[in-house]
Recover the amino acids of this structure.
């Protein structure tokens, strides 16, 4: 079972999300939070696999709550919001979110996104993916804190895989591009995430774009 904590300040929206999630036999809603502070507290006490996090919430915004949850290693965070403005996308991903979806996402796509994040893969809503990639392509060195030295511990193959992740390629597409077995790609992805101390391939993609790989 995939254990999910829902963090959303609007009770009607939260109830709808819980209803959708509970319709899936492999997903269990373990708690509900009405603000960012409560989301962090419940993540600590309930130990969910994933926190479905709204961005705009009282007491503590979703980006700040995401940063705390990820920093403490409490859960993966899937950000869900009505806004697709760049600052929310970049803020959430830099805070360590494993994915970013808009609230107009279809129920089946929401469930699949939860499963995708649970598998350790990142996901960004198709509606914002093009904007995200275009922004990083236009300014690959956007984050001054991205130090190229972090790549020194990667093998040549791992750097190639990281570059492909930065292009938004799936494991299957990377396997085709680099003429490797898909299982080998998964191994390289796991190793480079560990070496770079990243929690998701979305963070790896952001880093790759920031370093211009």
């Amino acid at each position: 079972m995939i254990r999910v904590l829902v963090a959303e300040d609007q009770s009607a929206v939260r109830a709808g999300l819980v209803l959708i999630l509970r319709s899936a036999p492999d997903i269990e809603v373990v708690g509900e939070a009405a603000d960012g502070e409560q989301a962090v507290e419940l993540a600590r006490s309930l130990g969910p696999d994933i926190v479905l996090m709204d961005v705009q919430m009282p007491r503590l915004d979703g980006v700040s709550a995401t940063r705390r949850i990820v920093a403490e290693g409490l859960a993966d965070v899937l950000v869900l919001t009505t806004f697709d403005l760049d600052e929310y996308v970049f803020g959430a991903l830099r805070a360590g979110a494993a994915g970013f979806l808009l609230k107009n996402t279809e129920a089946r796509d929401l469930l699949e996104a939860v499963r995708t994040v649970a598998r350790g893969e990142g996901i960004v809503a198709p509606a914002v993916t093009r904007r995200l990639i275009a922004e990083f392509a236009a300014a690959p060195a956007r984050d001054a804190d991205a130090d190229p030295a972090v790549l020194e511990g990667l093998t040549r193959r791992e750097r190639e895989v990281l570059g492909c992740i930065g292009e938004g390629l799936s494991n299957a597409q990377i396997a085709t591009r680099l003429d490797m077995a898909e299982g080998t790609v998964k191994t390289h992805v796991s190793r480079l995430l560990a070496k770079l101390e990243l929690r998701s391939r979305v963070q790896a993609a952001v880093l790759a774009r920031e370093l211009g790989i």
User: Anything to note?
Assistant: The radius of gyration is 17 Å.
